[in-house]
């Protein structure tokens, strides 16, 4: 989170400001999905590029394999993200139905659970009785309390569709960058690879820097850390292509 001044903090914690903030609808945050999609997209395509160059294969192969992987892997990753969020939503809904059923069938037992939960937090006597009475007088609050306190789950405000779309778009956009130089047929293979590596490095560093800026972390460290991850993946791909070239006797092109 970005740092704010003391005056701003005081203003934000006035009763009316607190009420507005708590009543504000939850918004889906797609930053994490975009960052993950962008990093994975760039790693995927630049790994293909590095493997092809390491094996000294005909450069257009990098374009074909790169774009094929870009679309297929981007779609797969987006669908996986969608399903993961939907699965968690279904889990929360299942637990909500379970607690609703328990309240109908064993209300005294459920009240005792609430009592023990807040007793363990240090509440006693009339204060504890008041808390239990207040919570158990509102079925939705009662169920929400059991979800968060007993099952350690919380309603998910993330939109599966928005998360999947953010993942796919970031994956494709960032992942396409290392492939662009191989569309410039006037360049030599070495120039294409050098430019591809430069674009990939910019993408890796940029994603890390943006993420660090959003969460008030050191931009340089965040950028270099992401660059190191991407560079390591590319190095492994290049080395694998180079070694397998000899194993399978691939001729230089």
From TrEMBL:
GO molecular function, one term: manganese ion transmembrane transporter activity
Membrane recorded as keyword: yes
Gene Ontology cellular-component terms listed: endomembrane system
Compartments where located: Endomembrane system
Membrane protein topology class: Multi-pass membrane protein
Short name of one Pfam family: VIT1
Residue ranges of the TM segments: 163-184, 190-210, 222-244
Keywords: Membrane, Transmembrane, Transmembrane helix
Keyword Transmembrane: yes
Biological process, per Gene Ontology: intracellular manganese ion homeostasis
Protein name, per record: VIT1/CCC1 transporter family protein
Organism name: Pleionea litopenaei
